Amino acid sequence: MSKPAPRPPRRPFPAAVLGTREERLAEPQPPRAARIAAYPLLFLLGAAVSVCGSFVQALWPPVGVLLALGATAGTFYGGLRITGTRLGAGVPAAGWFLAMLLLIVPRPEGDNVLWSNATSLAWLFAGSVLGVICATLPTRTSWFPGVPGPPR
User: Fold this and answer.
1) How many CB atoms lie within 10 A of CB 51?
2) Per residue in 27-72, pLDDT tens?
3) Could you tell me the pTM of the whole model?
């Protein structure tokens, strides 16, 4: 009777879900035309997540903020992984922030979408932090499409 093969070591949860840095950097780069076509779509997706998240965080107060932040993190990180560039995370973050600025401004009738309460401020602050975190993760290239990154 032979011994069963040893099981590979367990990977930490973030590495199992997101992959390790070496695995992410070894992935092939998407074609340049596909990346450039994805940027406007990512901008609009970031703006849509901002608008939807603003209503969700107000509709279901503590859970809504977490749900909206999860969608925001997924959008920013998805843009990073789809394009393989930091610009892929920065473009949806720009769309998210532009829509957020428009939602903060009160209307002439006195209506507000985002109020100055704890959940709205947490949504604004944590979403901005998530955008910065995702835009500074290591990638295969630099900020702009087609510009090679530093040698590894």
Assistant:
1) 15
2) 777 888 988 999 999 999 999 999 999 999 888 888 999 999 999 9
3) 0.80
